[in-house]
Amino acid sequence: xxxxxxxxxxxxxxxxxxxxxxxxxxxxxxxxxxxxxxxxxxxxxxxxxxxxxxxxxxxxxxxxxxxxxxxxxxxxxxxxxxxxxxxxxxxxxxxxxxxxxxxxxxxxxxxxxxxxxxxxxxxxxxxxxxxxxxxxxxxxxxxxxxxxxxxxxxxxxxxxxxxxxxxxxxxxxx
Length: 174
Fold this sequence. Notes:
Blueprint: H1 2-21, H2 23-26, H3 32-38, E1 59-65, E2 71-77, E3 79-81, E4 84-89, H4 94-101, E5 104-110, E6 121-127, H5 133-162, E7 167-172
Antiparallel strand pairs: 1-2, 1-5, 3-4, 4-7, 5-6, 6-7
């Protein structure tokens, strides 16, 4: 036990010396979320994206609006890619029509039933065009990684039933 304590103490001393001599290097491998909590010693260090806290959740409520201002909230699966949220949906859904009518949306972490689990954020949304294959491929890869087998089964069944390829909604903050 004493040996383990001595090793831990020695490691602490080494880290203290590293922090004193190279403060920027010490924080090089810390994730943005941890930097946000700790406070970054380097003002040029990257800051977490606007949706970084959403990584903790599997579902978000997406509220899209009719031109007359009425909002409709839908719980959806999502992924984060390059500080943007991507949602896959059927091209015939009303949320697509609403987003085409007005790009203003609200997004908040939720459970699968749509119960809010965090703060609501104002954002903008658009439908990815067919030629934006790189963004679609990145979103699809992230969806498969995040949701695994349930996503693949859902996508397969969706393809059998609807005969439509899904469309992706890109959501960002100004």
